[in-house]
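Input.
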Amino acid sequence: MIDRDSQPLPSMLRTLVREGRAHEAALLLGAVPARKGYVDLIAAARLARAPEGPLVVLSECTWEPGSRSLSTVLGRALGGLGQRAPLDALTRHAIAAIDGPRVIYCVLSEEDRQHFIPAWGVPPERVVVTPYGASLSDEELALPRSRGDDVFAGGDPLRDYDLLAEAARGLPAEVHIATRRWNPDPAGVPANVHAGALPHDEFVTRLNNCGVVVVPMNGGEMRSAGQQTFLNAMALGKPVVISDAVGVREYIRDREHALIVPTGDARALHQALAWVLDPVNAEAVEAMVGRARDLVNDRFRFAHYEGRLLAVVDEQLELLGRRPVGG
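Output.
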């Protein structure tokens, strides 16, 4: 285990490569962001090229063709190219540089897997589904339960906050959106909608104190997102309303664990939020919340996710003949 905040990026890259070469397997973060220098992906490429190198397992490969952040970086490097297609091709080449027979890609749902295989040209046997888990700490999960009467939304990837703002019109509740990326024209935002970035502690406090959590997702995407938000909300006993995006139904069932609404449908989102907020439905909402919390505890705690990743490492080492079965 390596503390990601313990050293600067160049040193972190050297550490990942050195330690990877010294072990049978390297479990790296496929979703490492641009602000972290893509160090895990660069390390994966170096380890994959090394003769007799380790097994490389990349977790959270939540990629899309033409990776938006990577395309932005490449665009700056190439003088701000306006055409997306050349950047898409460059991104595909960059990902291809990582690939090799000892590289395993972990995605967060079977629907992700079905998109990932043709998008990146990876053999199906090297793409594995490892469902995500709630990431709150034990201390955060032990916070005193509180149920307000407001709506909370948070997170950045693939969110449709324009849709939520439209759905919020006429709701008998304040809507708080924790995001760094949504910058609408204030004149077009309803008075009950408030948005801005929050530090982690305040994010968790608002998540724990709100009346309902909403995860409005874009439609037409090729990868999933939002699992951390809705699983954490369910773990805290919050009713959840979520768009019917990639992979959602592999985690939860509509009206059993949460309300699932069509992507891009502001009216359906408004109606779902109004239903949860209506005191008439309090008993049905509480029953749904209880089932959702049980589901997370039984299948989607972060320890479950870690166990799934380590099981992939063991299984793949056995397939490579590097570990005796049962060893």
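The radius of gyration is 21 Å.
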